[in-house]
Amino acid sequence: MSIYDFTVKDAQGSDVRLSDYKGKVLLIVNTATGCGFTPQYEGLQALYETYQAQGLEILDFPCNQFGHQAPGTEEEIVTFCKGRFGVTFRQFAKINVNGEDESPLYTYLKSQKGGVMGSNIKWNFTKFLIDRDGNVVERYAPTVTPEKLENEIKELLK
Prior knowledge:
Blueprint: E1 7-9, E2 15-17, E3 25-31, H1 40-51, E4 56-62, H2 74-85, E5 90-91, H3 104-112, E6 127-130, E7 136-140, H4 150-157
Parallel strand pairs: 3-4, 4-5
Antiparallel strand pairs: 1-2, 3-6, 6-7
């Protein structure tokens, strides 16, 4: 099993095969629009603008499991993110990252990098960095800002 075996839904409800991202460096993030970490969208967008042409893709998965901080429809979330933070990276349908209804993608990501506090995702804006070969390189806590990932991303893009 690899990251490329998964198909997910984008914010418009269309199927997206992660195999379409082969050869790219991926940053996969579970997000929320009403979270204390929501301003990280600005840093994520800055990384995307700087490194997208070199092969970085950011995959944004809204998650309403933590304090119901991602209310609204996918369309409302996309509108908010574009309007408030100028987001141009790919946004996906809302998912669960823990529990009985968790996304199979997140089951896989957590199996690869359980994190210091165990495998469950603790909060919004947990980040997974994937190399060009589809390997889960690292998992970052929500408190790790996008700016702090820049050097590792640059290294993977070489």
